[in-house]
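Entry for the shared binder. Reason: the reviewer on the internal report wants the predicted structure included alongside the sequence.
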Amino acid sequence: MFEIALYEPEIPPNTGNIMRLCANTGCRLHLIHPLGFDLDEKKLRRAGMDYRDMATVTEHENFTSFMQTFEDRTIYALTTKGSHNYTSAKFKPDDVLLFGPETRGLPDDVLESLVAEQKLRLPMLAESRSLNLSNTVAVVSYEALRQQRFLGMS
């Protein structure tokens, strides 16, 4: 199934919501340090509704160690700087969906490591800055799952 990666997430409720999403879809969650919170934080537990035990969560010490883990996989970065609509991607079950921190998005050096077709964006009004992280993860992961005909899901 798909890998969902959060690069230096900052807001516990967003990560908790994403854990819950992963637990319900079979996607695996990867958290790239440093985190802006403690994984035992009350707000994270509340948003995750105790789904942490049901979700597969892997922590990575930094972006380099994360990239070493997935060097042979296609990584799609979701960014407001992307020029390709997320629906144009042809997702495969072993792809990685990478999302940046809530207040600053993915850094330029991370984006520069990917080709243009791997930098995706969600359409929104021109004057909008960005969507909420957990909403973006839900939209993109469900598109990827849809393309796989929701295999294994009922």
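Summary line for the report: Strands lie at 3-7, 28-32, 57-60, 75-78, 84-85, 96-99, 119-121.
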